[in-house]
Every structure is written in C-alpha cells, then in structure tokens.
Amino acid sequence: MTLFRLVYFDFKGRGELARLIFAASKQQYEDKRLEYSETCPETIAYKKEKAPFGRLPVLEIIEENGQVKRLAQSIAIGRYLANKFGLAGKDEWERALADAIVDQISDFSVKVLEYIIEKDEQKLDELSKDLHENVFPNHFGYLELKIKESKSGFLHLINILDWFDDSIQSKIFEKYLTLKEHNVRVKSLPEIEEWLVKRPATIY
Length: 204
Ligand SMILES: N[C@@H](CCC(=O)N[C@@H](CS)C(=O)NCC(=O)O)C(=O)O
Description:
The chain has helices spanning about 15-25, 40-50, 75-85, 90-115, 120-150, 155-160, 165-175, 175-185, 190-200; strands at about 5-10, 30-35, 60, 70. The protein is an alpha+beta fold.
C-alpha cells in the first residue's frame, strides 16, 4: 500500500490545503511538522537534502517497494491529491474550472500573507485598509458568484480565510453572507469537522 507523509511546519499556512484534502477523503497520512526555525538541524537538513525546491510543504509518496517520491509546491500537491482522491472534478472541464478558482484564490492569498506577516504597526494599518476597501470587495464578489454556481466546497478558500484571526473573519462574514454560508457548510461536513476539532491549534 502506498503511504503518504506531508512534511510542513506546525501551522496551517501552505500545508493545510493538503491536510484538508486528506481529511475530506478520509485518507491516512503522516502529518510531519518540522520546527519553523533557521537553526533547527532537522529543518535545515530536510530543506537542503530532501525538499525539491528547498521549501515546504513537501508531499512524500512512499511506494510499496520503499521508493520515496517527493512533490513540492502546495498547489501542485493539492491538485495531485484532489485528482487521486476524486475531489478535482468529474471531467476535464470541471477540473479546469476548479483549477481556475484555485488560482484565483491563490492570487488573493498573496495579499492575505502580506498582511499576516507584517510586523510594523503603521504598515499593518495601511494593509488592513487596503484589504477591507479594495482586496475583499474585489475578490469576494467574484468568489461568491462561483460559490453560488457550484454545489461544491472550496477547501483552499476556507483555509486562506482561516489565516485571519476571528475578529477579521467575523467582519468578513458580516458583509459577505454567501462566503459565510459556504464556510459554515464546508466546515460542517463530518470529515472536515472531525479534522478541525482534532487539529493542533495554531495562529495561522
Ligand atoms: N509557492 C510555494 C511556497 C513555499 C514556501 O514559501 N514555503 C515556506 C513556508 S510557507 C517555507 O518553506 N519557508 C521556509 C524557508 O523559506 O526557509 C508553495 O506554495 O508551496
């Protein structure tokens, strides 16, 4: 039997999409969390010797004969797993539409990341203003349309929204009701709910 190991850090970040896909498809895997540190020998060695592009996440696929294949890039990992476990769409066109939505959410995630890693208070205020006045209206309008057209759930989206703290999420859901309904619906799926209850609590 093929075994899977997801190697990432102890936060949701770019590793959580794969974890959500594993949860949604009820697949066993090892959730290996390395220390997020520039001095941890295990992390340094893994990035240098095993990670295909020196960064995480990395999905390890351990074949029955013991051979290990390593896949980098969170979205490539997500696509591989979604295809493998039947979550990527039923035909070429559905898969292409799903890819487009994932890429759109990734564009949005760049803005979210800028905000959550900013330490300077003044810059944070500017980024927050930009998020609320420009980024949210710009992205959520389109994404809400796609949610309405689809009966599916967008795991990548619920993860990116989870990078925000509760107060920002509440503000978003006050205004974007379709987004809120989608978030509640996807997080209430039994397989996802089970993972959300047991996953380690992390800030982002
Ligand atoms: N585009 C890549 C980004 C990978 C990336 O930047 N990973 C960060 C963590 S989110 C990392 O490995 N940082 C540690 C380092 O750069 O040394 C992906 O989506 O996987």
